[in-house]
Structure of Phosphoribosylformylglycinamidine synthase:
Amino acid sequence: MVILKFYKNPGLKANLLKSKLEKIKKISDSVTNIEAESCYYIESKSPLSKDNIDIIKWILTSPFEPQELKDESDFKNGQLVIEIGPRLNFSTALSSNAVSICKAVQLEKVTRIEISTRYLIHTKTHVDKDTEKNIVDALHDRMTECRYIKPIETFDHGFRPEEWFEVDVVGEGRKALEEVNKKLGLAFDNWDLDYYSNLFKNKIKRNPTSVECFDLAQSNSEHSRHWFFKGKMIIDGEEQKESLLDMIIDTQTKSNPNNVIKFSDNSSAIKGFEVKTLRPNRTDEASSFKVNSSKQHLIFTAETHNFPTGVAPFSGATTGTGGRLRDIQGVGRGGYYIAGTAGYSVGNLNIPGYNLPWEEKQEYPSNLALPLDILIEASNGASDYGNKFGEPVVSGFARTFGMIDPAGERREWIKPIMFSGGIGSMEANMTKKIAAQPGMQVVKIGGPVYRIGVGGGAASSVEVQGDNESDLDFGAVQRGDAEMEQKLNRLVRACMEMGDKNPILSIHDQGAGGNGNVLKELVEPAGAVIFSKRFELGDPSISTLELWGAEYQENDAIMCKQDDTSLLKKIAQRERCPINFVGTVTGNGKIILSEEDDCDASKYMRKDYVSKQRHPVDLELELVLGKMPKKTFQLDRSTVKLSPLNLEQTPSIEEALDKVLRLPSVASKRYLTNKVDRCVTGLVAQQQCVGPLHTPLADFAAVGLSHFSTDIKCSGNWMWAAKLPGEGAALYDACKAMCDVMKEFGIAIDGGKDSLSMAARVDKSVVKAPGTLVVSCYAPCPDIRLGVTPDMKAPSLPEKEGFLIYVDLSGGKSRLGGTAFAQVHNQLGDDVADVENPSDIKRAFKATQQLIKEGKILSGHDISDGGLITCLLEMAFAGLSGFRINIMHKTGSAIEILFAEEVGWLLEVRENDVKDVVELFERYKCPEVHVIGKSVGHGIDSHINVSVNGITVLNSTIFKLMNIWEETSYQLELRQTDSVCATQEYTSLKDRKSPAYKLTFNPDIPLPRDAEKPLIPVAVIREEGINGDREMAASLISAGFEVWDVTMQDLLNNQVTLDKFKGIIFPGGFSYADVLGSAKGWAASLRFHPSLQNQLRDFIARPDTFSLGVCNGCQLMSLLGWIGGSEDGEPNVVLDHNNSGRFECRWTTVKIENTPAIMLQGMEGSVFGVWVAHGEGKFTFRNNDILEKLKEQNCLAIKYTDDNGEPTEKYPMNPNGSIEGIAAICSSDGRHLAMMPHPERCTLAWQLPWVPANWEYKNSPWQRMFQNAYDWCSLQE
């Protein structure tokens, strides 16, 4: 192997470098400055030719700055240079994608590409070794990175794992298991040690291998088997009648039986709808799309990834997201993802320079990240993974807590909660897996085997984090590769879209326990032989134990018939997804892992065959997966010491709000929503943000099953330190209370997960996390257009005023225990809000649903964190609407009435509907429904006036209070994005107003279409990593086109050529994860392939063709020179990184200019909202002459505008900093259009996240673009 090195300066964006400098200045006063350069390590099988090197250099550099890449470092010997790079034990996701780019341009010699960052530390004086070490620690993530003392000359890390061995249980009994338990970090408890000692010594009567012990520890861990929830509970000496799981399952008896899957398959599913679905005619080759009708059931799944996220927040959250996505994939015979949810619970943030008085300074363990870092990096990781994979996040939560309780015990989410939920769908006839039968093939699909995630199931089952050895903790964490996950998903989807011909007979996602767990689940009870030599290894040094137990990500196991192997290989090759046929179902009831070179399974099919060699795994499935004895848990209730709230001085309402509105659970979540894609797929009807400023306050999320298109179930996720004193009994009591109220509501729980090691060791103390239950509800919605959002609307309507109705279900109580108010005063309280009468809630809910159906509710919001006053303020913030209220029906202090978090909700209605609304609630026998005031005044300076029993307690403005509410989010933004941009957005709040939309055409009057004309074929071309192709196809089909699904592999294989198409569409996404620059790999695969270059040249030369590039497609068209032209083959226009330095997803206002763009004809002068979702969207020009020429030719087609509809460069209205607000450029003849916004994600009215309250149009303006393209093509015939 040969390693080639290149250097690029600068190595980091200025804002990141500034952040690093601030960190190390705190370590040493001697540090004055820091510089950074990147080093590219390129490994190849043999030396590369000059032509090869030239191609690599083109891929690695910006077309405008090729000189940045150098053969030698700018940093000289003798200076303090610290090089930080990825650990060498496995290839990074970046390397995997970079190597894929090389393969696409025929650089088959290249086997690995890694990038390090070299820091030049400027100091006033020499720094000692200890200081240098501290600086190194501050510059890297110890989980995924390490320091390179000298430049890398080989990627061979030199690590050679121990071979597997026998554990002498027969000779030494339990003692032998205890030793291997400690050595391998198996987390066996006393019950496990006794059970497995007896199993092997007395039943199987042979010694287990180390691989078998490892296997059992993972697949039968608490994490995998949920022993606690299934176990026998003895509380205070009394055996309980039901296990936790029995109680949960019993909720099904009180609910509508609409589940098609429950408590199995890692996901749950309920009956859905007959919908029109978009499907390719063929999925193994390029073909046109068709619209079919099919019955689609709804899937929901949720899981947590707490321990890995605590150790390495970014990578832990990425793999948590990926694992939950595979839970959707792995349901039945395959599932389709639609959207995700995300939640984070961490300890006190202690943001430097932002003192929140209830946060006490405490010690934190060294083996877990700090809460502030976890919140930022975990949300970065989950967002990055979903953005690249192409799953929108549409709902979530964020909470912080850390406190010394009245008993003197510290409670804090030191071990965090990283929650990931997902909604999906599945074909109604694919809910049942087909049982394993002899001769069926066992197949692994997805990424290769890496030494990552070894022992995660056991590590996550340790009672107290910090009691395991640190090295074992780190070994249990994985890495995420969203690109590989998408390839995997494409393969699974292609199989499912074959309908009854789906070759997947059964599918299981790989998670805790790795191959050992997933392959046993797949083939039970029939059994199979698995051959280790048939796995694709990412690292040739992988041991058999690691191969069997590692939780390497982006991998599923499937079964197929022997006859379908060639079809699967063909689909996998088209989607560039690795596939390995690793074994065969034998029918002998055993799972055998063979290391033989001769991978002939036929001998294992014979009943008389007896293997002469010792296999690392040779187990009867019935003994390890069959019905095992319940574990018994002896629990005792602890007396909880609680004290009433004790305030030295009762604060004013304004003083209380100054604290409560800053609490992360109450404060703005804009720092989370700005960076995550909320529109990809085009199936999102409601995401987190509402109102004219797209404020993150939505109460629900809604998605469609199709682009053409009241029974509720819940998933319960439990995060509890259940095995510590008093906690298990508390969990049992909480579960019983939840199940009782669910049955009253008629809502069933149909699935969920648990994480029962929610405690961490800090020095000699154990800090327990607050016991946590996350309930996720999902339900079929007959009409996703009927939803009520929290933003007040009446003040923006002609009537100018609305009436506010309080649906009060508190039973007259105003309890402050456990509230946000109590938390910001560093107390718990002793009397908490409760459900007084479930029947009242049911009746009020039904009445509200009826009012929604009748269109009588303008806005609505539930009372939760922060109480009634926060509910009102959030409605005002979201709608930029003031209000006047007077609470007259409740007794108690203003603090109690306004800050209690009792059950109830607020509704805004028109004046002429008030009487009908109140009477309807009375007919439903709702006891307390009161008109409490009016919404009045529109704009950021509108007044807020609150009275309680006739006494004014608050007189303020929206801006004053919203500014407080936004500040915590701003402080977090400063730590994750460019500080100038973050400050610009925060300080511009005072100037914001509802955007001024204007249409110069009527979208409800469609363009005439001749149905008799032949179909017009267009190709939606997707490279690996593209994720916006289906919504693009749907928009084109709705306009009348015949749309083809074409992959780059189809073109490279010459399976289809471009001469048959009138239009080429390059959709959005992250081709090759954009690892070496946006669309750089995609452009290279076209640029350096002569046949494709000729086809593109011929396509452009035909005057009857058009093209559209959106987002990544826009970036591609710029690199190809299709917009702005090129000089010496190099483009004149490129898309640079957003000024914010990160991915931005926003509903942004744009103006359509007067240009020759064929797709925008008749739309000139319109100002309207559109989705943007990109990280590199800043139009940049080779020189000013290029820009001026484009202006002369009227090619600047779309521009970002401010709230007045004027083009702007100001953030966040302009999300990337493009000069003059440029959002799209067309060719001089108008046939080719490249744009960063996503019109294809908002071509239907229900996809629009906000329009003015008085909006009268029934159709989305953006569909006109696609109608224009069809109309133009029709005229070319």
